[in-house]
Amino acid sequence: MSDTRHVEGSPIEPAPRRARPDDAGRVAQTWLRSRRSSVPEIPSPVHSDSEVIEWFATVVLPAGGTWVIDHADVVVALLVLEPAGWIDQLYVDPDFAGRGLGSRLVAVAKAAAPGGLELWTFQANVRARRFYERHGFVAVGMTDGDNEEGAPDVRYRWPAM
Question: Distance between terminal CA atoms of the chain?
Fold first, then answer.
């Protein structure tokens, strides 16, 4: 039995793969769609679309820690895993949320860093916080907004130590 899922008649093969350099624009667009759909729970992006695309193309993807899930030549989920077990970015296209894609990417991160993972998310992002807590992450610290958005955030760790 296949684990293929269907959305509007089209199968999704939710197998994560490493991002390629030519994915930069698609990855950035998914990041932007996801961020914008989460406003006002999280702040709007502080950089222009072109700056975000450039950042993914010249900084993020060349670092090699980006994983994606595709559907119909569109990146529908992305994970940026930094060295030393940091989840820097985890976003799912809003049209594909709730289908287990984020969980598949968390599994990739846990397999890559079995000694532990850490991440930041905005305190107000209740959906993300519940998601990470369901996956065994524990809040270990908070700030009053020590980030470029100036929004309070929370630091999570897996496994809890």
Answer: 38
Helix or strand run (H / E) with residue 17: strand 17-18
Q: Given this model, what pLDDT does residue 24 score? A: 95
Alpha carbons 57 and 54: distance in angstroms, whole number: 5
Torsion angle in degrees (nearest 10) through CA of 18, 22, 25, 29: -30
Residues facing 5 on adjacent strands: 12
**Tens digit of each residue's pLDDT (9 = 90 or more) over 16-33:** 999 999 999 999 999 999
β-strand 5-7 against 10-12: which pairing, if any? antiparallel
H helices present in the chain, as ranges: 24-37, 49-55, 61-63, 101-112, 126-134
Please tell me whether the overall predicted TM-score, pTM, comes out greater than 0.85 for this model.
Answer: yes
Pairwise CA distance, residues 144 & 123, whole Å = 9
Task: Please enumerate in sequence order all residues whose Cβ is within 8 A of that of 157, keeping only pairs 6 or more positions apart, or say none.
Answer: 116, 117, 118, 137, 138, 140
All structural domains of the chain: 5-113 (3.40.630.30)
Residue type, 156: Y
